[in-house]
Write a structure and sequence with these properties.
This protein is an all-alpha fold and about 450 residues long. The protein has one domain: Up-down Bundle (Growth Hormone, Chain: A). The protein is built from 16 helices and 2 strands. The chain has helices at about 5-30, 30-40, 45-70, 80-95, 105-135, 135-165, 175-195, 215-220, 225-255, 260-285, 290-300, 315-330, 335-350, 355-385, 400-425, 430-440; strands spanning about 200-205, 445-450. A two-stranded antiparallel ribbon has the order 1-2. Helix 3 runs antiparallel to helix 14 (about 355-385), helix 9 runs antiparallel to helix 15 and helix 13 (about 335-350) crosses helix 16. The longest helix has 30 residues, at about 225-255. The two termini are about 15 Å apart.
Length: about 450
């Protein structure tokens, strides 16, 4: 189908992303550091747990993607998986966000495994569902952009709550517990709303469509567009994992602004909202992959400017300004990836005669999550190696502090520059995407209802 998704269905479709953003913002940005500072878990132990849980997450991606492609139900192939995944996410967050002071790495690991299984069950079918409710080149960017905005809005709500002081100061145990309780209702509720009001869509098909578990390997072998996208995501995932795992430590341990963590990220997300219409226009004008490369490159260039800010009580305002500028130039990152994957899926259908959208998104998720698994754990290992102490009130040497800066800022910058150079070479622009879509839809049968 090529018509635009109606606004009511669009709202219901993206609403679960807002609920997920409320959960994932503290999960990725705050939780590892919170455990390092407030429980018996050590940096080295948390590094191992982060790697183990993310590798488990990466291992389940191909299987869930394949099973999602094969699922037949009255509600379609994707909805049962998304509902089940939302329940697992909500339960795991409830326990992860309320650890006792005696909680160990084992506690963190077990519930992280449950979270990642639920996230895979939620995220992959949801992304594949996007390719099935519309086949229009620009509408995919529109929906993907609104999904990104919704996720950012969820994170904004969390950081805004931290600034109000209603749940204690900064990233408090009371705030995390409140999110844990809220997750039990908000995420499953919004997912059920989407399942009721958004149609299953239509899956592109050919007479030879028989998705197999081997589809992931076939996609990697025969789809050059997918290869370019995955390689860029590998680099971006490695840098992103390091960045996510160390930002609160940097703000707290170096800039002495840990208590303003929520304010800085609120500013970041407000600008993301404002910049999104501009980035959509840029993408419509110059294409998804070139806009993404430009966004990634400019974001990397902004990273080392924070080193010009002297640490201390007055650092908040220049850090806030830099975060907002970096947010403005990074906007394409939440629009382009899913939309580019949708184009790669169409090319794969043309090449292989199979619609394996779940397997394709599994390949993308596998790339990002594998590198995120390695990078987030390695970042904590490296911090332990340089004897960095994250506990409140701890005194670290100058060498340990400089090591934190190198790990948390310079490594992500290098990864982003390399990722930008790769995605610039993505071979499907608007003209080629339209040609591919027409050829796919010209086959018989052209479109098959989602099962």
């Amino acid at each position: 189908m090529t018509s635009r998704v109606p606004i009511g269905q669009l709202a219901a479709f993206v609403l679960p992303k807002l609920a997920l953003g409320l959960i994932t913002a503290p999960f990725f940005y705050v939780l590892p550091t919170f455990y390092a500072q407030n429980t018996r878990a050590t940096l080295a132990g948390l590094g191992t747990a982060l790697i183990a849980s993310r590798l488990f997450d990466a291992f389940t991606d191909p299987l869930v993607g394949w099973l999602s492609d094969k699922t037949k139900s009255p509600w379609g192939a994707r909805k049962p998986w998304i509902i089940g995944g939302s329940i697992l996410i909500a339960a795991s967050i409830f326990f992860l966000f309320q650890p006792t002071g005696d909680a160990t790495v084992a506690y963190f690991l077990v519930w992280s495994l449950v979270f990642y299984l639920g996230w895979t069950m939620f995220e992959l079918p949801s992304d594949a569902w996007l390719t099935e409710i519309t086949r229009d080149y620009n509408d995919r960017s529109r929906i993907s952009g609104w999904q990104g905005l919704a996720a950012q809005a969820g994170g904004f709500i969390f950081f805004a709550a931290s600034v109000t002081g209603l749940f204690g100061k900064g990233m408090s145990a009371e705030l995390l517990a409140a999110v844990g309780w809220a997750s039990l209702i908000i995420l499953p509720g919004t997912v059920i709303l989407a399942a009721v009001f958004v149609p299953s869509g239509a899956r592109s098909a050919t007479a030879f469509e028989t998705p197999k578990l081997s589809g992931l390997w076939k996609a990697l072998r025969s789809n050059g567009a997918l290869q370019v996208l995955l390689c860029s995501q590998l680099l971006g995932g490695f840098g992103g994992g390091i960045y996510l795992g160390t930002q609160l430590l940097l703000l707290d341990g170096y800039f002495q602004q840990g208590h303003n963590f929520g304010l800085i990220f609120m500013g970041y997300q407000v600008v993301h909202f404002a910049a999104m219409p501009i980035w959509l226009k840029v993408i419509y004008r110059f294409g998804k992959h070139r806009s993404w490369a430009l966004s990634w490159g400019m974001s990397a260039a902004m990273t080392p400017l924070a080193l010009l800010v002297p640490p201390g009580e007055h650092a908040i305002w220049p850090l806030l300004a830099l975060a907002m500028i970096r947010s403005a130039v990074a906007g394409a990152d939440i629009v382009a990836p899913r939309a580019l994957m949708a184009d790669a899926i169409d090319y794969g259908i043309l090449k292989t005669g199979e619609n394996s959208a779940g397997s394709y998104f599994a390949a993308s998720s596998l790339a990002v999550k594998f590198c995120a698994a390695v990078s987030s754990g390695v970042a904590f290992w490296l911090l332990a190696l340089i004897s960095y102490d994250p506990k409140p009130g701890a005194t670290n040497t100058d060498a340990s502090t400089m090591g934190l800066i190198a790990i948390g800022m310079l490594l992500p910058m290098i990864c982003n520059v390399l990722a930008a150079a790769l995605i610039w070479r993505f071979p499907i622009d608007r003209r080629r995407a339209d040609i591919i879509r027409r050829r796919v839809e010209g086959r018989r049968p052209t479109v098959a209802p989602a099962e």
